[in-house]
Amino acid sequence: xxxxxxxxxxxxIGRHLALELLARGATVYAAARRPDTLDLxxxxxxxxxxxxxxxxxxxADLAGDVDLLVNNAGISTGATLLGDLDGVRAEMDVNFxxxxxxxxxxxPVLAANGGGAxxxxxxxxxxxxxxxxGAYAVSKAAxxxxxxxxRLELAxxxxxxxxxxxxxxxxxxxxxxxGDKLSPAVVATRVLDGVEAGDLEVVVDDWSAMxxxxxxKDPREFYAQFLTA
Length: 229
Ligand SMILES: NC(=O)c1ccc[n+]([C@@H]2O[C@H](COP(=O)([O-])OP(=O)(O)OC[C@H]3O[C@@H](n4cnc5c(N)ncnc54)[C@H](OP(=O)(O)O)[C@@H]3O)[C@@H](O)[C@H]2O)c1
Description:
Elements: E1 3-6, H1 12-23, E2 27-32, E3 44-47, H2 53-62, E4 68-71, H3 85-112, E5 117-121, H4 134-153, E6 160-165, H5 184-196, E7 201-203, H6 206-214, H7 219-223
Parallel strand pairs: 1-2, 1-4, 2-3, 4-5, 5-6, 6-7
Helix pairs in contact: 1-5, 2-3, 3-4
The chain binds NADP nicotinamide-adenine-dinucleotide phosphate (NAP).
The site of NADP nicotinamide-adenine-dinucleotide phosphate has 29 residues, from helix 1 and helix 3.
């Protein structure tokens, strides 16, 4: 009888996570910066920009019965680390600071509801970078290790923390990229299956698994594909 809150539920992976939660019988708070863009019959709409501390606090007050917090909201601007610093900060503001502020606000709510779970939608880019992904990759690496640290800090209240890693899914975020893309519906199913199974990491696809495995090797092997002469 889960009660979930999903950030960025108006489109992409977040919308499919909300749909799948509804299909599995959960009560769902669908959070979006513009609730008028939500298309989720049966969900409870919440206006929420995760970079707005007052809105985050209001969401935690309003959704006091939540036992599953799904931090899906994210941005990918293409900002590079040596380019415009405002772009780098924007990625960190949403993908790291916004996500952390949601966990900080909802930790007492989850504790009051038996511990529950936090899901942080990270990326395969937690574990590598490619040209043009600098700020996003750094923000998702921070998001990933935030999950590891929060898992320890929330263990005392029995809150499961699950980090999600995937390559390309077919959403607005990847509209400019070619290649095989996962259906966001499939992503949602794999994520929720993993959370239900108690997985601490959901590695959604083979690409993410390969990238993770590459960390145990000499980085020259992996980065050779990008560092062409
Ligand atoms: N698509 C992929 O290939 C892929 C791969 C790995 C990881 N991911 C991650 O998966 C998550 C969902 O991505 P997606 O592909 O579904 O992207 P998307 O289609 O671009 O959707 C992003 C969602 O995040 C919301 N959002 C952005 N900034 C926000 C903020 N400050 N406060 C609240 N909501 C905000 C957006 O709301 P608005 O509509 O208001 O902009 C939108 O609902 C992200 O964390 C992303 O990094 C995606």
